[in-house]
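Project outcomes to date are best conveyed with an example. Our students and postdoctoral researchers have been running inverse folding experiments weekly, and each run begins with a structure described purely in C-alpha cells. The record below, which covers 188 residues, was selected by the lab manager from last quarter's runs and is presented without edits.
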C-alpha cells in the first residue's frame, strides 16, 4: 500500500502553522482489522475544553535524543488552556497558539506527543501534516473522548515532555471538516 495522491489544506500558513493538515489518498482501500480502524470525526468542529483527557499516538521519539520508534506508541495528554500555552513560561506568543489549535500535555511535564509509550490497543494512524517535526509525531491523531479532534503539529524542539512546551495540535474545526468532506467527495 502506498500514497497515491496528497491533498494539502489550501490555507496552510507556514509561519503560524495554522491549517497544518493534509489528506492522503491510498492506492487501495485499507483493510479494517484489529490494527486498523476508522477514527470518527467530530460533528461540529467545536473547541476541546481545557482539562479534557486525550490520547495521542505516533512513531516518534519517546524521549529527547532517542531514535524514532519502530513501534506505534501512545500517551494520555491533558488539554491546556491557550492562555497558559501562550504565556511567558510557555510559548510566549512565539508562535501564537490560536483558536484553531489545541495545546495538550502535562503542566508537570513528561507527557507529550513525543513521549508516547507502547500502544496497547488498535493502531491509530492518519496522514502526514506539512510540518517537518524532528520528533516524528507530526500528523499523529489527537483523540479526545473517542473522537478524532486534532492533528499533531509541533512542540518545542529538543524539549520532549518539557512542561514549558506542551504539544500543539491542529484543531479539526468546522472549516477543516467542511474541507475534508468536500475533498473526499471529489477525490473518489
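After processing, the design step wrote out the following sequence:
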Amino acid at each position: 500500500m502506498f500514497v497515491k495522491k496528497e491533498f494539502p489544506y489550501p490555507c496552510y500558513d507556514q509561519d503560524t502553522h495554522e491549517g497544518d493538515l493534509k489528506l492522503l489518498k491510498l492506492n487501495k482501500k485499507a483493510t479494517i482489522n484489529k490494527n486498523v480502524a476508522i477514527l470518527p470525526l467530530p460533528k461540529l468542529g467545536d473547541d476541546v475544553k481545557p482539562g479534557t483527557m486525550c490520547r495521542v499516538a505516533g512513531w516518534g521519539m519517546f524521549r529527547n535524543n532517542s531514535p524514532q520508534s519502530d513501534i506505534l506508541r501512545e500517551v494520555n495528554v491533558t488539554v491546556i488552556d491557550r492562555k497558559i500555552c501562550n504565556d511567558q513560561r510557555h510559548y510566549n506568543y512565539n508562535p501564537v497558539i490560536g483558536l484553531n489549535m489545541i495545546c495538550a500535555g502535562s503542566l508537570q511535564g513528561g507527557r507529550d506527543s513525543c513521549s508516547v509509550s507502547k500502544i496497547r490497543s488498535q493502531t491509530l494512524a492518519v496522514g502526514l501534516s506539512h510540518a517537518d517535526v524532528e520528533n516524528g509525531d507530526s500528523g499523529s491523531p489527537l483523540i479526545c473522548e473517542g473522537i478524532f479532534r486534532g492533528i499533531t503539529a509541533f512542540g518545542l524542539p529538543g524539549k520532549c515532555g518539557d512542561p514549558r512546551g506542551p504539544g500543539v495540535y491542529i484543531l479539526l474545526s468546522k472549516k477543516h471538516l467542511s474541507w475534508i468532506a468536500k475533498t473526499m467527495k471529489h477525490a473518489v
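The chain has two helices and nine strands. Confidence is low (pLDDT under 50) at residues 115-136. The training component of this project remains on track.
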